[in-house]
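User: Hey, my collaborator sent me this sequence without any context and asked if I could get a structure. I don't really work with proteins. Can you help?
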Amino acid sequence: MIGSLHGTVAEKRPNRILVDVNGVGYAVQVPLSTYVELGPLRSEVSLLIHTHVREDALTLYGFLTAKEKSLFEQLLKVTGIGPNLAITLLSGLAVDELVPAIRRNDLVRLTAIPGIGRKTAERIVVELRDKVAHLETGIAAAPAVSGGAFEADVASALLNLGYPQAAVEKAVAEAAREASEKSFDAVLREALQRLTGRRARAPMASRGAGTNA
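Assistant: No problem. I've predicted the 3D structure and written it out in structure-token form, which is a compact way to encode the shape of the chain:
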């Protein structure tokens, strides 16, 4: 099994990168939390790898931190959650926000992530509340500074993750309008914060708990 990779970033797009290790390219699925921290093309990268084996496929999932990898592997133990949905969870909320949401039974935060209905969120809480206690830092990560351009690319990435088009258009437009930095990564982080409720906003009591899964 492959446990880690060290090489250069040969190709990168949200949720998937190609790592060149001595001339061999490894396709690695990554959460957005890892993607936004990557350097530019041809920069060096070191990833912790979870190798997922099925009869018809071998897929590599990569993470910059041990906490990300540990939480990913805990999520795989939850009934009904496969690696793709686990990556979506880590893309929707950073570890330092996802762990507190699980620990505090924050179903509104969890069901804001595409593909996570109320029943799935409840299973995550019940099955992982105590198991992820060692990953909790106590303080959620601060929101990133908003970005500026590349709205079409950002919107495409978010739509591919399953967020509804109307919500994506609104979040990207707001992120771009308040931009102080013109970069794809910055706008992506800002838009994600808006979509998952991490920015300060009006009370969300009227917001639904998500579709059942």
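In plain terms: The radius of gyration is 17 Å. You can pass these tokens on to your collaborator as they are.
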